[in-house]
Specification:
Helices cover 0% and strands 29% of the residues. The protein has 104 residues and is mainly β. A 4-stranded antiparallel beta sheet has the order 1-2-5-8, with no helix packed on it. The protein is globular and about 30 Å long. The protein starts with 13 loop residues before the first strand and ends in an 11-residue tail after the last strand.
């Protein structure tokens, strides 16, 4: 089983679950506008980053596959800057939709 890692020069409130992940998990709330580090770069979010939220570890172009715990979780529908929230407003799921099972 992969072990969680803390990315170098990254705020301790952000957790990288596996090498190669391009999203980080928030482990303690970060206030909107509060500066924090990701990979040695100071960034901030325009929204509160609550426990369990995902943020971009790097700048993600639209159409980039988001990877968490070494697995693809979705594809960005818009560009997402490092440190910004990655959620349903800018990410489409790569999971099979249950209403589409069996459809061609």
């Amino acid at each position: 089983m992969a072990r969680p890692v803390t990315a170098p020069d990254t705020d301790r409130r952000l957790l990288q679950l596996a090498d190669g992940d391009n999203v980080l998990i928030v482990t303690a709330p970060i206030a909107a506008g509060e500066p924090f580090l990701i990979g040695g770069q100071t960034v901030s979010s325009s929204v509160v980053l609550a426990l369990g939220f995902k943020v971009a570890a790097v700048d993600l172009d639209a159409g980039t596959v988001a990877v968490r715990f070494g697995m693809p979780i979705g594809r960005t529908t818009a560009a997402v800057a490092r440190g910004q929230l990655v959620h349903t407003h800018n990410l489409e799921s790569l999971y099979m939709r249950t209403h589409a099972r069996g459809e061609q």
